Amino acid sequence: MKLQLLAHRGGLGRAPENTLTSFKQALSDGADGFECDVCLTQDKQPVLIHVDFNRYDIREATGCSTPLSRLNWKEVQQLKSKNSDEPVAHLDDALRFAQENQMPCFVEPKSDTPELLPIIIERIHHFGVIHLVSILTFSFRKQLFIDAKRLEPRLQTSVIFINPMANFLKAATEIDANRIIFGWNKINHFEIYNAFTRSIPRQVNELCAKGIVVEAGFILTPQDVAWALKNGIQGLWVDDVPYIRNCVKQITNEI
User: Fold this and answer.
1) Which of 11, 15, 62, 187 could form a disulfide with 26 if both were Cys (CB 3.0 to 4.6 A apart)?
2) Per CATH, which fold does 4-54+87-254 belong to?
3) Could you tell me the residue ranges of all domains in the chain?
């Protein structure tokens, strides 16, 4: 299987995150897919803004001090992605882009509010991109994955694990996950754990044997890349696609 390079928040190292410009940049950079964060406005429009789970503070993402729960879509359209002139995007922008370019799109619902997931699935159906979209979030939000498969059994799901001691195959099987992602931020604690247990390669092989795709991220350094390649990882979640692709080429040539 070809190693996949997937653009985190559209590739935030290359363009303002969660914007149509970032998706275009990801496509131009040759990314194999892009991810976006979805939350709801006061009038229940799905917009692409990164917020903490079940929070409505959008100051960091947009510079706006008013919570998203008190803004309607018309007001959000006046906002810009922080430190840029890029407007806040609607989920429709991402799904239309995926449709037009047949590019995989990973959608992370940032709220457990019951309206959000059905709205996301309705828009996926509207654009006819069920084959391109995966619902992505952390393993502790188990109910979200269960609800997603109940509402649309064909929908792909991607589970982020941050606990290297988890039984990944058991957890993925329980929620019928299509892919799992070993997730870390800067320090790869999976690498540290595996140095003592040597269990990660075995679990990766078990998952792959069951047809579950195994990915990792955020991949930021050549060391991250080397570890992922060594352990049979099939996809890398990155902020800068060209840089990581170059790292992959260099490491592969050295092997």
Assistant:
1) 11
2) TIM Barrel (3.20.20)
3) 4-54+87-254
